[in-house]
Amino acid sequence: MKIMHIADLHIGRTLNQHPLLEDQIFMLDQLIAEIDKESIELVIIAGDIYDRALPSKEAVQVFESFIHKVNIERGLPVLAVSGNHDGAARLGYGKEWFRQHQFHLGTHIADSFQPVTYQNIDFYLIPYVEPAEARLYFEDDDIRSHRDSYSRIVEQIKGTMNHERKSIAISHLFIQGGQESDSERTLSIGAVEYVPEKVFHDFDYVALGHLHHPFAIQSERIFYSGSLMKYSFSEVQQPKGYRLVTVDDEVRSVFVPLKLYRDMHVIESSYDQVLNNELALKQDDYYQFRLSEMRHIKDPMSRLKTVFPHVLELRYLEDTAPATAFKAEVDKRDDLEIIEQFIEAVSEGGVNAEQKQILERLLKEVNDETY
C-alpha cells in the first residue's frame, strides 16, 4: 500500500496579518498532483487541519475542496485526527456520516481504540489529548502530563492489538527530543508536554503531526511529515512536502519535497543594498529584512514594499544581536538549584514550596525517561 502522510496544514493561517490561503491552495493542488503521480491509495492527515478552533468560511471551503478531490473524486480513504489548533468537537461533527464515505476522523479519546483496517493494516486514530481530558475519561487523578495520557491510551490499544497485521498509529503530539519551530503553539508549560518515543514501540509506523520540521526526530518507526508550508521565519531552512509511506513486508517512509508558492528568506544587509536590489533577490517572495543604515529613513517599510510587496518583517540589524546569556555557577549545584537560581535572577520573587514540588516532580520524570 502507498500512503501519503501529511500534517499541520493550518488552513486559514496568517503570517504577520498576511493571509496565506493562496499559498495553501497552491500546496494542496500539488498534493493532488502527487497523489495521481504516485498512485497513492490512502491519505493520512495527522492533525492541525485548521489554524484555529473556529476557522473562517474561506478556510473551510479550501479544505472541503481538497477532501472532495481526494475522497470523492478519487475515492481514496482519508484518515485524520484533530490537532491542538483544531476544535475537536466542531471538526468531528458529522464524522459518523463521513465514515460511510471512507473519511475517518479521530477527535475523541474513544476513537483511538477501534482500528480502521485497510488491506492488512490496522490504523489507530489517536487525536491530540489534553491531560485534563484523559484524566476525566479514564477517571484517574494520577494522569498529569501528555506522557501519562498517551501511555494510558496506548496501553489500552495494546490489549487488543492484532499482531498478525501491521499497525500504524496516527497522532498529534510532541515526541521527546524533537526539534521545535517558532510557529508551533506550545502544548503546555515545562516537560509535561513531551511524550517518550518508547510509548509507541509496538507500532510498525507512527505518523505524527505538531512539529513542523519533517526531520524533527530521528527514529526507525516515528516520523513527522512537517507542516504544509513555512509558517515562521524560524522555518526558512526547512524543506516542506509530504511523506510517502510504502507498506509491504516492511514499512518505508521517504520525505518528498514540494515547491512553495512563495519562498521565505531572512536577509541581513544594508538598507540601500536591499532597496536597490543589489543582492538580486526574488521580489515576490516573503522576507524578513534585518537592515543597517536606515534609522534616518522615514517609513522604511513602505519604501521597501514598493520593491518587495511581500516583505513581512523589518528589523534594525543592530537590534538583532543575541541577548546577554544568563550565567550560573553550575559546578556544585544540582538541576533544581540551577533552576531556582535562574528564576530568582529573572523574576521578582523566588520559588515557593508548591512550585518547588512541581519542579521536583518534573525533574524526576525527565531523569526517569533519560536514565
Structure characterization notes:
- The chain is built from 10 helices and 18 strands.
- It is of the alpha/beta class and 371 residues long.
- It has 3 domains: 2-257, Metallo-dependent phosphatases (Purple Acid Phosphatase, chain A, domain 2); 264-319, no CATH class; 335-370.
Helix and strand topology:
Layout: E1 2-6, E2 14-15, E3 18-19, H1 21-38, E4 42-46, H2 57-73, E5 78-81, H3 88-91, H4 95-99, E6 103-106, E7 116-118, E8 121-125, H5 131-138, H6 146-158, E9 166-172, E10 174-175, E11 194-195, E12 205-209, E13 222-224, E14 241-247, E15 251-257, E16 264-270, H7 271-275, E17 286-292, H8 300-305, E18 311-316, H9 335-346, H10 353-370
Parallel strand pairs: 1-4, 4-5, 5-6, 8-9, 9-12, 10-11, 12-13, 16-17, 17-18
Antiparallel strand pairs: 1-14, 2-3, 7-8, 14-15
**CATH hierarchy: architecture of the largest domain:** 4-Layer Sandwich
Number of strands: 18
Report the radius of gyration as a whole number of Å: 23 Å
Task: Give the spatial strand order of the biggest sheet.
Answer: 6-5-4-1-14-15
Low-confidence parts lasting 5 or more residues at pLDDT below 50? none
The figure for the number of domains is: 3
Separate helix tally: 10
Largest sheet, in brief, is: 6 strands, mixed
- The CATH superfamily label of the largest domain reads Metallo-dependent phosphatases
Shape field: globular
In CATH's first tier, which class of the largest domain applies?
Alpha Beta
CATH topology of the largest domain: Purple Acid Phosphatase, chain A, domain 2
Average predicted confidence as pLDDT: 89
Q: Tell me the structural class.
A: alpha/beta
Helix percent reads 25-40%
Alpha carbon gap, first and last residue: 38 Å
Q: Hey, roughly how much beta strand do the residues contain?
A: 15-25%
Family: Belongs to the SbcD family.
Keywords: DNA recombination, DNA replication, Endonuclease, Exonuclease, Hydrolase, Nuclease
Domain Nuclease SbcCD subunit D C-terminal: 261-346
Pfam family, one: SbcD_C
